[in-house]
Design a protein that fits this description.
The structure holds 2 protein chains of 2 kinds. Chain A is mainly α. Chain A has 3 helices and no strands. In chain B, the strands form 3 sheets. In chain B, strands 5-4-6-7-1-8-14-13-9-10 form a 10-stranded mixed β-sheet, with helices on both faces.
Chain lengths: 85, 402
């Protein structure tokens, strides 16, 4: 399964939606994922890809991990996988 | 001062998943203690407990809630739902702003602690789920009850080991009696039946391997249980004005500290709490018909408790009934006083006194009427509920029939 499909699966489960309802342009806000849901999604991503995501819930915008859409999350993970492998 | 009545009760424990089921079991003198079912039970020396079996979180909670609720929170919510449904209360506006929830627990989210310690220490994982802290914190149950029922007034958690529930209910009682809150949700919850929870208790060597037999000469220790009891404490006029069904009146309480030993009980400390509850309720010793004992089934507690009762009640100690329902549901630690308050309500409201089961041999040091093995019909006007915790912290509540 591709990084994109895995991320969509994780995000969809968190949002209690079907994967088909999640697009690359979706934002977490669009999907109804709140701050606790975001932290849980980051945890699930770390578990799924065996990576460490530099994310601080105190100030998500300052973190070196762009969560503004599903596409930026997928891109961030692909970079982390490359850096941390 | 306002009068305080109980207008709702809820529970889940080894005897049943509702108050009605629990009353039924207490009347039958049924034992809810059995073989423990958990991971690594073969590594435990103590393999019995009053475990809640056949409890499914599915269907009661949604997926997100299940991810956030430790078992002790699930128990508290199940009991609170039953109690509040019975009371018929809905919390909004001014009433919601003033009403709160005070719950007792000793260990808080022990299942969460146990599972995650196992994960990082045994499995060597370096990452834990983000909800570990909000699941394990001792106030999680009280907070989730406040959120589910819109309780916005004074809300907190009390942790005084085996007296947690009685201390919590004493606080709730004071808040209603003093007029601070029209309604308080109170009681306690515990879920310590996990590998680490049992292992810790094994260390003290006060646990029985076969049964909890309070006051019996051949008693050989306590047996742990789990579950919750939750009540609706309501100001009397408020309850009457809306035609609520009143289960019992809470008429007094007292707390005391032995200031003596971290584990051994004190007759004086227990006696001061019992007599303090009588004075607070402005009743005479002779008014008390039933005492729900702390009655843990340990050598030390039972003889000390009987001596304290004999001191406070004098000759009347021989005419009152005192039983320990821990023989049936086990010791729920921080939740125990709440489940045991049900036996007081049953005695007052239904005229049936729950027995001390497993009673086999009289002990001259526990020479009181312990209602051995079989429930008894009796007219009881006033009942006390005792709780004497490790650390020497005692709390006794007094209830009257309405």
């Amino acid at each position: 399964m591709s990084v994109k499909d895995k991320v969509i699966g994780i995000v969809a489960e968190q949002a209690v939606l079907e994967p088909s309802d999640v697009t690359m342009e979706s934002t977490l806000e669009d999907l109804g994922i709140d701050s606790l849901g975001l932290v849980e999604s980051i945890f699930a991503i770390e578990e799924a890809f065996d990576i460490s995501v530099p994310f601080n819930a105190n100030d998500p915008t300052e973190s070196d991990f762009d969560i503004s859409s599903v596409a930026t999350i997928v891109a961030g993970i692909e970079k982390l996988i490359a850096d941390q492998s | 001062m306002k009068r305080v009545v109980i207008t709702g009760a809820g529970t889940i424990n080894a005897l049943g998943q509702t108050v009605a089921e629990t009353f039924e079991a207490m009347k039958e003198g049924r034992c809810g203690i059995g073989p423990l079912e958990m991971k690594d039970v073969d590594r435990l020396a103590i393999k019995i407990g009053g475990q809640v079996k056949g409890f499914e979180a599915e269907g009661r909670f949604n997926r997100q809630q299940m991810a956030l609720y430790d078992r002790f929170t699930q128990f508290a919510l199940v009991a609170a739902r039953e109690a509040i449904a019975q009371s018929g209360l809905e919390f909004s506006g001014e009433m919601a702003a003033k009403s709160g929830v005070v719950l007792g627990t000793s260990g808080g989210g022990m299942q969460t602690l146990d599972e995650n310690y196992r994960s990082v220490y045994e499995d060597g994982k370096n990452r834990v789920h983000p909800f570990v802290v909000p699941k394990l914190m001792n106030n999680a149950a009280a907070s989730h009850v406040s959120m589910e029922f819109n309780l916005k007034g004074p809300s907190f958690t009390v942790a005084t080991a085996c007296a947690s529930s009685n201390h919590a209910m004493s606080q709730a009682f004071q808040l209603v009696r003093s007029g601070v809150a029209p309604v308080m949700i109170s009681g306690g919850s515990e879920s310590m039946l996990c590998f680490g929870g049992i292992k810790a208790w094994e260390g003290l060597r006060v646990m029985s391997k076969d049964a909890c037999r309070p006051f019996s000469a051949n008693r050989n220790g306590m047996v742990q249980g789990e579950g919750a009891g939750v009540f609706v404490f309501e100001e009397y006029e408020h309850a009457r004005a809306r035609g609520a069904d009143i289960l019992a009146e809470v008429i007094g309480f007292a707390m005391s500290s032995d200031a003596a030993d971290i584990v051994m009980p004190s007759k004086q400390g227990a006696a001061r709490a019992i007599s303090g509850a009588l004075s607070d309720a402005r009743i005479n010793a002779e008014d008390v018909g039933y005492i729900n004992a702390h009655g843990t089934g340990t050598a030390a507690n039972d003889k000390t408790e009987c001596a304290a009762v004999a001191d406070v009640f004098g000759p009347h100690a021989d005419s009152l009934m005192i039983s320990s329902t821990k023989s049936m549901h086990g010791h729920l630690i921080g939740g125990t006083g709440a489940v045991e308050l049900l036996a007081c309500i049953m005695a007052l409201r239904e005229g049936i006194v729950a027995p001390t089961i497993g009673y086999e041999e009289p002990d001259p040091e526990c020479a009181l009427d312990v209602v051995p093995n079989t429930a008894r019909e009796a007219k009881v006007d006033v009942a006390l509920s005792n709780a004497f915790a490790f650390g020497g912290l005692n709390a006794v509540l007094a209830l009257r029939k309405v």
